[in-house]
Amino acid sequence: MRINDTRLTEGDGVKVLARVTIILDDMVAINGLAVMPGHRGGLHLAFPRHTHSDGTKRDTAHPLNTETRSYIERVVFDAYKAGKTEKRNG
User: Fold this and answer.
1) How far apart are CA 76 and CA 31, in angstroms?
2) What domains, with CATH codes, occur in the chain?
3) Is the model's pLDDT at 79 over the cut of 70?
4) Which residues pair with 19 in a beta bridge?
5) Span 58-62, average pLDDT
6) Per-residue burial over 25-44, b = 16 or more CB atoms within 10 Å of its CB, e = otherwise
7) Suppose 48 and one of 32, 34, 72, 88 were both cysteines; which one would form an S-S bond, judging by CB atoms 3.0 to 4.6 Å apart?
8) pTM of the predicted model as reported, rounded to 2 decimal places
């Protein structure tokens, strides 16, 4: 698996630093990732979730192993640190 593109738009600057879409192997887009401040400093990458009518939350996409999570985090955090975040329209 290879991330071909990472698209970041600015978040609210407090809870969400950036909203993220990644493109995998030029075939699949995953929308709804979020770069957030980490609990002990640093950064945290939240994966997309769906909230059901009963209030329960369930991930809609997530890595299945530590190596994949680390790879996705590295690519997204590098793009974020490089200032590749675009301003939202409006």
Assistant:
1) 13
2) 3-49+59-81 (3.30.1120.40)
3) yes
4) 9, 34
5) 92
6) eeeeebeebbbbeeeeeeee
7) 32
8) 0.86
